[in-house]
Amino acid sequence: MKSLIALITSLLSINVYAAGGFTWYSSLIHSLHLDHLVHFEHIGTLLLVSVITITVGLLYRLKISKVKNTIIPDSTISLRNIVELYGSFIYSQCNAVLGEQAPKYFKFISTIFIIIFLSNVIGLIPGFLPPTEVVSTTLALGVLSFIYYNIKGCKELGTINYLKHFAGPLWYMAILIFPIEILSNFIRPISLALRLRGNMMGDHMVLGTFLNLEILGIKVAYFGAALPFYFLGLLVCFIQAYVFTMLTMVYISLATAHHDHDEHHAH
What we know:
- The protein is mainly alpha-helical.
- It has one domain (2-43, 116-266).
- Helices cover 73% and strands 1% of the residues.
- It contains ten helices and two strands.
- The protein has a two-stranded antiparallel ribbon with strand order 1-2.
- Strand 1 (214-215) and strand 2 form a beta hairpin.
- Helix 4 (79-98) crosses helix 9 and helix 8 (174-212) runs antiparallel to helix 9 (227-256).
- The protein is globular and about 70 Å long.
């Protein structure tokens, strides 16, 4: 019991310390006398998230290679069960939006969701800044989604037919509809980036405000007043990763949907 109290007290103290501007990355960079790299703190954290994701993936593959019957899950809570539970959840969402095309895009969707979710969640750990609170990271993710679904649209329909669907169903309205649709398409990665960045920055600011809140000169964070905001923050982290992923799947579905262009032009 004493150990648990000591641990909680220590975590709350670190929370307050982190709210004052302390980060593990900047501390490490300073100790290695590489202060010129401190501006890449968010990139460093994103690299850490990527390493964690790759490591978990490799451990899962290693575990699966030793299993005789992969259909039977482990009898206890294990890394394998957690990964497969995550995979089952993401595949069900892919199937709901993309239907029979779900297997084609499952790998990309599952990767982008977990990268965004972990990048969000790591900001809840004292001493880490979420990479998704800076627009450069979220814009890179938005552009990645944009490039992916456009390439898949061109491959699925052919480049000419893919461009045709931007012109709309009525050929004589194409001169008006085509530029509007093209502009709308180019705005998508920006809207994805700003939505994710805005929500994560706001969540981090709210948490930081309550960690720094003082009453009669005493920080209320020492008494766990900020804990409810950690749970709300976790919910925000999931929702924002989910929204980004769902919109990406919708864009893929729209880009790869087959249209009968001859029929449209006939009308």
